[in-house]
Amino acid sequence: MKPSPPSDASGMFPRNYLVEPATGLKSWFTTLDHKRIGVMFLIAVSIAFALGGFFALLIRLELLTPGPTVMDAMTYNRIFTLHGVVMIFLFMIPAIPSGFGNFFLPIMLGAKDVAFPRLNLLSWYIYLAGAAIAVYGMINGGTDTGWTFYTPYSTTTATKVVPVLLGAFVIGFSSILTGLNFIVTIHKMRAPGMTWFRMPLFVWAHYATAIIQILGTPVVAITILLVALERIFHFGFFDPNRGGDPILFQHLFWFYSHPAVYIMILPSMGVISEIVTCFSRKRIFGYSFIAMSSLAIAAIGFLVWAHHMYVTGMAVYSAMVFSALTYLVAVPSAIKTFNWTATLFRGSVQWDTPMIYVFCFIGLFLIGGLTGLFLGNLGVDVHLTDTYFVVAHFHYTIIGSTIYGLFAATYFWFPKITGRMYSERLGKLHFWWFTLAFNLTFLPMFWLGIEDMRRRVSDYPPELGTVNLFVSIMALNIALSVAVFVFNMVRSWARGPRAEANPWRAQTLEWTVSSPPPIDNFHDIPVVSAPPYEYGNGKPAPGGAPAPARPRPRP
Amino acid sequence: MTAEAMTGHTDHIAEGTGHGTDATAARNRVLLGVKLGILSEIMLFGGLFAAYFVIRSDTGGWPPPGQERPELLIPGLNTLLLVTSSFTLQWAIRAIGRGDLRTMKRFLWVTIALGAAFLSIQAYEFATNGFGLSDGVFGSTFYTLTGFHGAHVLAGLLLMLIVANRARRGLVAGNRHTEVEATSYYWHFVDVVWLFLFSTVYVL
Q1: What domain range is A404 assigned to?
Q2: Which residue of A has its CA nearest to B9?
């Protein structure tokens, strides 16, 4: 659907959160406005994304040819560690919840802010402090343990483990506070008539995410702290010489870090649910199933951690139990996928940039999910573990799902956040370039893994050289396509055409307020009288606005 | 802190019509937030206890041969102090619920004194124990678990000192005392964790 031209292209924006109460940097750094805090998080995680991407390019540069290319093996170990640490702790975990979640969750509920605005700002500063500590560790030599910090290596290596660990530890509290804030907001701040089953699915996804943030993060926090204490004071928790147990670390670590992948993906799935129904001009299929499957994923996610540990010598019987539980996660995931597909079925699908990202998400999530079944299978995993098959699998889930959702969210909500439209042409260019480059980078890695190319090793058999050269070139293309995205965002924010309040004719509450939203979101708290996705049936939207007609001509 | 101060809701928030306008709503938000924070803390201690039990079961016999547990007398006394302090804090809340600020302050200070006594006795115990931080898993687990708990006691004490200071300045009253309730939730939680610690680290 084409956004209609702004009625007043040259005029001033209505009073909004970007200029009120003031525009100076100080007013941003002391703001309690959830929208500004969301924007500050988005900027911070974008910088982290660039940093993590830079490390990824260094990895691919080294893997350009077999044998040493530009760095020695020890440097390579640090580079892939920093890539993982930055991408996971500084970027993936906070990206959607702390960025878009902060900005839109309160508005979607008809609230003027989150429950604890000061805690919200604190959580941004905690993130910043954690990132600063981690970056300090990186500048001072970094660490070479891999982002998983497995003991006993992490307690014995001479590299700077402690600052990097403590950075992740501190950022964890930012995550906990955000989750806590969201749960209280959802419970206590909903507008009149906003019943639980009238909440947008984006909110449901964040509710499930927040549960994981609150229950999972403290466990990894204590684990990280124990490693730090073990290094500093020679505690014996993970040291067999002192009666400790190195495998215990892996159990504690994955008890959080497996659910953490759902912290990364559930908010993204929430984004998909919003966009798929809006751009199909059709009520979402199976609303309550999608909502409940988020909670189911969060719950089952806590029961599968040991599938990361099949080769640690654990009892075969318990490995079988974890394998079976792992398959169980596929059920709620498949429920979502089927419901999104059913929503598309006979919808009037509009191919704007957010929607093509969503469409592609569904396919890529299928690849990521199905290859997850290979690895969840005990017998197959023993052969594929620590190969590039695993690397390809989790990049398909993390990029193919979370980052596609993140891009979709950015295009979808860009008009609301900035009050301007992005360039649809550049958006499509970004999509095609990124999608081709991403698939051509990671699809060959499945094959490389089956050919036994080991992950976290800077060398590989010479006969795999051609494919690795190709993969490295494609990885560079990912970076170039993201540069198009950044250019589009920056230029459009500076001088894109003005966006109207509801360019997508969407029906959730954030589209009932002006673009950009006013500082207190709603002058009068809306009274909600309908479910969120009443597309195309002539009923009024929840905000009381008349249901928009389909603006698109039939082909 | 008042509930409003805790939530940081400024005027543009509070003037809304549908929700969150009155003190009751702010109180409910704060108390739910504290409960969720405690849930998070339970998982933190849960992780520690899990590590402790795994290491215990890995070791043949507990305490490991050649090491002895501390005598029960001092930690037993400490247990008594901490349990009593939960009751005194609850009496403080009952007092402020009646609007009796004087009694509230008195019991609050008694609670603070009991907590401080607990920490002092624990410090004495640490200093006189025959084993150190780095003496194998027994010392490591003992000091990690009790030390983490001690840090939480300290945090609770600081919270109560803030509340006491607010009460002194006249900011706590019969109809606005969310901060006392919130602090008491946390204090009771710290107390319950100690009961688990005492029974597993010292006794069982």
Answers
A1: 25-544
A2: A117
